[in-house]
Write a structure and sequence with these properties.
InterPro entries: GHMP_kinase_C_sf, GHMP_kinase_N_dom, GHMP_knse_ATP-bd_CS, Homoserine_kinase, Ribosomal_Su5_D2-typ_SF, Ribsml_uS5_D2-typ_fold_subgr. Catalyzes the ATP-dependent phosphorylation of L-homoserine to L-homoserine phosphate. Its main location: cytoplasm. The chain folds into two domains: 170 residues, Ribosomal Protein S5, domain 2, CATH 3.30.230.10; 127 residues, Alpha-Beta Plaits (2-Layer Sandwich). The protein is built from ten helices and eleven strands. Helix 1 links the parallel strand 3 and strand 4. The protein is globular and about 60 Å long. Bound molecules: adenosine-5'-diphosphate and ligand LJ64HWYM.
């Protein structure tokens, strides 16, 4: 039985950016959307599931597939019956490297389901991601990557009794993220397992100060000369909450973060790692940062994604 004849029809294609979370001191809060994208096409069918994946990393192609789980969760939230699904995924975001691949998969599934269900599209603007952000946070377990993936730019995300919310901040124009991706993979779950349950108050306090400074330093609304901005970013990206516990496990990553910082470049662990994020200011510093790499990292000079997750095409009869 075909989709249209069963009354089950629709096809949507979505695009979701990679994200780098934390940016040093903003553990589980800060996110930056990057110009590297996964694309997913979802077609509704009468029954069953097919998943076609193009891209480097192998994933299960059954109901445990993260995009499928997110679509199903979104249809449940929207009170829609579960349809059959045919997915075509183009995966460009490397998995288990601290670039938000799981967040992108979850957001892709949610915005695809929303578009197919003719619900709200992805929200943009301060705190406006609504139910999609709340659901994405529930599935991901922390709101930072999913917030930036949904709305783009630099985001400050949090959760309270009402679920997750975020504030989107337009990043300053000259920011040039450079990402260094090692071949080593590290699951976020395992990396979170390395963190202590308690941290010294002094570490929390000095990280809090850096985070507040970083939120200002990332904002386009804060005018600053390039050299001043670079110096402030370097100071603002210090972290005492999670990186000290994670970096010892990945020697090459720790060494690269240290080397870039010694060069005056604001480098941090990207998300839970093991990739490194450098927040270069302007093309010249980005070139210097990219040149600091050794053979074991792939260097990705990226733009900031400012638009967030996008529905590229939708055909409700497709
Ligand atoms: N596009 C995708 N499709 C299906 N599953 C995915 C996709 N992207 C990520 N995943 C799942 O998420 C896992 C990686 O998530 P995680 O450990 O949080 O690392 P990160 O999000 O930093 O890449 C993968 O091993 C896979 O199980
Ligand atoms: N705040 C989280 C961010 C994880 O990001 P990912 O890209 O590594 O999944 C953490 O630090 O655990």
């Amino acid at each position: 039985m075909g989709g249209a004849s069963s009354g089950v029809a629709g096809r949507v294609r979505v695009r979701v950016p990679a994200t780098s979370a934390n940016l040093g001191p903003g553990f589980d809060s800060f996110g930056l959307a990057l110009g590297l994208y996964d694309e997913v096409e979802v077609a509704l069918t009468a029954s069953g599931l097919t998943v076609d994946v193009t891209g480097a990393d192998a994933v299960a192609q059954d109901e445990t597939h993260l995009v499928v789980r997110a679509i199903r969760a979104a249809f449940d939230v929207l009170g829609r019956p579960q349809p059959g699904l045919a997915l075509r995924c183009v995966n460009r975001i490397p998995h288990g490297r601290g670039l938000g691949s799981s967040a992108a998969a979850i957001v892709a599934g949610i915005i695809a389901a929303a578009a197919l269900a003719e619900a709200d599209g992805p929200a943009s603007g301060a705190g406006g991601a609504g139910w999609m952000l709340r659901l994405a946070d529930e599935l991901e377990g922390h709101p930072d990557n999913v917030a930036a993936a949904l709305v783009g730019g630099f985001t400050v995300a949090w959760s309270d009794a009402h679920g997750a919310d975020c504030l989107r901040v337009e990043p300053f124009e000259q920011v040039r993220p450079v990402v260094f991706v090692p071949t080593l993979r590290q699951s976020t779950e395992a990396s979170r397992g390395a963190l202590p349950e308690r941290v010294p108050l002094a570490d929390a306090a000095r990280t809090l100060g850096r985070a507040a400074l970083l939120a200002l330093a990332m904002s386009a609304a804060e005018p600053a000369a390039a050299d001043t901005r670079a110096t402030t970013l370097l100071r603002a990206t210090e972290d005492f909450l999670h990186q000290p516990y994670r970096l010892p496990a990945t020697a090459a990553t720790g060494e690269l973060v240290g080397r870039l910082r010694a060069m005056g470049i604001a480098a941090t662990l990207s998300g839970s790692g093991p990739s490194v994020l450098a927040l270069a200011v302007g093309g010249q510093q980005a070139t210097v940062a990219a040149g600091a790499v050794t053979g074991e990292f792939t260097v990705l000079p990226l733009s900031v994604d400012r638009g967030g997750a996008q529905v590229l095409t939708v055909d409700r009869n497709g």
